[in-house]
Amino acid sequence: MSCHTGEVASSESKLRHIPNTITSLRIVIALFFPFAPESWHLTLVFIGLATEFLDGFLARTFHWTSYTGQILDPIADKVFVFSVSVTWIMMEKLSLLEWFLLATRDFGVLLIFLLVLVQGKLRETRSPRARIPSKITTALQYGVFLLVLANQLQWMMPLAIVTAVCGIIATCQYAWLVWHPDSPEKNLRRVN
Length: 192
Hints:
Elements: H1 2-15, H2 18-32, H3 41-61, H4 67-90, H5 96-102, H6 104-118, E1 126-128, H7 132-149, H8 156-179, E2 188-190
Antiparallel strand pairs: 1-2
C-alpha cells in the first residue's frame, strides 16, 4: 500500500510541471514566430493564447502553482507580445505607435523592476500576483493581434489606446502593491 502511495505522489509530482511546460511552449512559439511563414501566424497566435489561459488554469485548479511559474509566466507573456509585435512592425502590419501603446504596461513594469533594482531592494520586494487590470491588458493585446490577423485595421488604434489606458492602470496598481507591502493586500508573495 505504501508503494502505491509513493507511486501516486511521484506521479502527482511530475504533473506539477505541466503548467510550466505549457508556459515554456509560449516562449518557444515566440522565438519561432519571426521565422514562421505568415500563413502560420493565426495558428501560432491561437496556440499562444491557449497557453496563456491553460497554464494558469491548470496551476490554479490542481494547486500546481510554483515560484518558477510565477516568474516564467509574465516573462513568457512579454516575450510573446514582443516577438509578435516586432515581427508585424517589420512586416508593416503594426506601427511603432501601436506597439508602444500595446506595451505600455510592459514598459511600466520594466521601469518598476529597474527602480527596485537600482534601489537595491530586489530581495526584499514582494511581487504581487496579476490583477484584473493586468489580465484585461493581456486580453486586449491579444485582441489587437486578432485584429491584425483579421485585417481589421480601422479598429487597431482605438483598441491600442484602450490597451494603453488599461496598461497604465495595471502599472499603477502594480507599483502601489510593490511599494506598499503592508497594505491590506493579501496575495503578495516573497521574491527570493
